[in-house]
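Example S7 (structure tokens).
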């Protein structure tokens, strides 16, 4: 299937690296103008230049997703640049693998504020972009969550709780915005090979133990998530709504 996002305006949070950058690049390759939001100003500006050098229409907006006013300012910058927003990918987040005794109240609040409150703040900041949509002029909101929100494993109680919360938020947003022709879904990866991968699985033995648990026999990569995100952003996915799409190579039964 040849996915086309030509003429669409997409915004991706946490897009300076990893899964977010891969999604932004894939959407740009598919014809969308992309707005990348990230806390890292230097890397965000570098990605903007990289994309523009490849001929993509790209605008970088610096924002801290845990700060609502910061997101409103980024939204205003991107709407001014693009006119409106058609696709919103809520990807920014943090993870730190800890047990419950190791999670102090400050760490709990930090992860919940970035991952869950940050998702809500992003939806709220961009909400009015989607209430002007119609079934003939579709909108898309895609949450990048985690299989941890289903299994309770992975990054610890604070991380799993934040991701479960995202699933509840996604379903509420899907109920509110569906009538405007906006499809809202979540992609829930488990382990994906990003910068954090070698920290979580530092030895070859640990990597082999992990891949043995994946029925298709390989790890997931940011490009896998980007491919699904582009499909969910395209008209071909218009009857998929309010769903959590677990993406883990069949590892979770």
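Recovered sequence:
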């Amino acid at each position: 299937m040849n996915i086309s996002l030509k003429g669409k305006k997409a915004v991706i949070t946490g897009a300076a690296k990893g899964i977010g950058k891969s999604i932004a690049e894939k959407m740009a390759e598919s014809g969308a103008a992309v707005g990348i939001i990230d806390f890292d100003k230097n890397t965000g500006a570098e990605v903007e230049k990289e994309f523009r050098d490849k001929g993509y229409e790209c605008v970088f907006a610096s924002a801290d997703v845990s700060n609502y006013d910061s997101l409103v300012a980024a939204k205003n910058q991107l709407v001014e640049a693009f006119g409106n927003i058609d696709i919103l990918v809520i990807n920014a987040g943090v993870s730190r693998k800890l047990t419950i005794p190791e999670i102090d109240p400050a760490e709990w609040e930090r992860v919940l504020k970035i991952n869950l409150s940050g998702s809500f703040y992003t939806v709220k900041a961009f909400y009015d972009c989607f209430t002007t949509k119609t079934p003939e002029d579709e909108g898309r909101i895609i949450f990048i969550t985690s299989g941890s929100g289903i299994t309770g494993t992975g990054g610890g109680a604070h991380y799993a709780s934040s991701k479960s919360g995202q699933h509840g938020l996604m379903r509420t947003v899907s109920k509110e915005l569906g009538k405007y022709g906006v499809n809202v879904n979540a992609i829930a990866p488990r382990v994906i090979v990003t910068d954090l991968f070698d920290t979580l699985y530092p030895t070859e033995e640990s990597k082999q133990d992990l891949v043995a648990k994946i029925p298709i026999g390989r790890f997931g990569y940011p490009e896998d998530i980007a491919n699904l995100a582009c499909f969910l952003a395209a008209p071909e996915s218009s009857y998929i709504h309010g769903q959590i799409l677990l993406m883990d190579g069949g590892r979770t039964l």
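Notes on this example. The longest helix spans residues 105-130.
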